Amino acid sequence: MPPELSMIGTARSEAETLFEYDRSRPFEAVEWVLGERDGLTWRRFDIKSEANRVVPGVIVRNSSISAPQPLIMLQHGAGTSKFASFVLAAVDVLANNGFTCMSVDAIGHGERDDQFSATGQAEEERMRRRFSAEYIAGNVADFRRALDYVSAKEYMDPERVGYIGSSMGGMLGALFCAVDLRVKAVVLRCSGSRYALRLLEEAPIDESAMESRRAAQKYDPAVFVGLISPRPLLMLNNSDDEVIPKDAVEFLYNAAGEPKEQRWFPGGHRDNLEVHSVESWLFFDTLIGLSSNKSGRQPV
User: Fold this and answer.
1) Is 293 contained in some domain?
2) What is the pLDDT of residues 8-34, one digit of tens each?
3) I want to staple 157 with a disulfide (CB 3.0 to 4.6 A). Which of 33, 49, 68, 235 is the partner?
4) Are 184 and 293 in contact (CB under 8 A)?
5) Residue 157 belongs to a domain with what CATH number?
């Protein structure tokens, strides 16, 4: 085990302390209909983060289904948004098969591009801030608040929640799902361990770089992914991924507990979106699909 990741297997109590958030804070929510397309209703919402910043999100559901629906949280990768190609591909499969889908913009992405990253800021500094404790913990808190907001809706079944994260969304998702036990099944797509450390190794050594490196060590997904167990984990990977190397994927997979499974497909980092979406649907459908209503909620 690399010495910089010696914290693998951290206790749940410690993880929960790191990612604690204020559950009582008002959402100050605003929600509206974006439109209808192919039988699916698209809604936009804004809620306030703990830092009093707007967290923009989208909810997509088949409103013709009266039964309480399972929820899948979809989290995009770096440089994209809640409307990323990965999110749209997954929504097309999942929402048309009885799942409500929800996605939010991570800090510094999409409609939050002006949050946490000053205009004109050097790319090196933007990268360092993206791997800071404030950035990572802030995103995890935002995901938890978004789940609080959406899962309370009358058409949702809060006992059937799944998560799919792609690339950065998978790495942040490993932390989020480790501490939020409402998530019952997890898919990490094209995600791995030590990604931040690899990038920071190329940065000039100064105090700012060392602080980012310490945060990258502390919040590496391999440190927390074992806490997802005993909930099922599926990792979907591409064999020619130019962003997340195979050894990073394998390290993260080996740090995870059972039950777990990984599948490999030919292609690069941005390939196989439709294939991965179908694989995710089949995985979720057997675990939390419409036939497994455990909440006791009645059709609305």
Assistant:
1) no
2) 567 788 888 889 999 999 999 999 999
3) 68
4) no
5) 3.40.50.1820
